Amino acid sequence: MAQIRAIESTAMLVQEPQPGLQELMSYLEGKEVRMAICTRNFDGPVNHLLQTFLPNASFSPIITRSFRPPKPHPAGILHIASTWELTDAQNLIMVGDSIDDMTAGFRAGAATVLLLADSNENAPLRQHPHTGLCITRLDDLIAILEKGFEEEQGGEAEG
Prior knowledge:
The chain is α/β, with parallel strands linked by helices. 37% of the residues lie in helices and 10% in strands. It has helices spanning 2-12, 21-30, 43-53, 75-83, 99-108, 140-147; strands spanning 37-38, 62-63, 93-96, 111-115, 133-135. The strands form 2 sheets. A 3-stranded parallel sheet has the order 3-4-5, with helices on one face. Strands 1-2 form a two-stranded parallel ribbon. Helix 3 (43-53) links the parallel strand 1 (37-38) and strand 2. It is globular, with a radius of gyration of 15 Å. The termini are far apart. 25% of the residues are buried.
């Protein structure tokens, strides 16, 4: 764990926000959409991200690496639903960039959106049955939410 923490601590210093992050956050905040974080990162990098790029954003709860069981188990997403007093995760959307994100969301019963990496390293996940939709920028999600979110299994649709 110390090695992972060291890698994350170094990476956070050169971290850049994903394209479209500010636009998506403004949209979600304007619509008063509740937001949470479910990540396998440690608290330090998450806090750095929030303080550096999203100082006024409100996320609750924030699920980090210390939460058990971790992704790809759906417990973190189900905990978010429970915290929000929802009976299940059907009305939640898990946006992520890994198979663990897609699997956790899928197993929890949430919709899933794969953020495709610029490097195309996660492109094979487009066809994975746990991927609902794919986007290339975070603000692609705005148009999808505006027209009504509908998954297309295997992630063929892009925003």
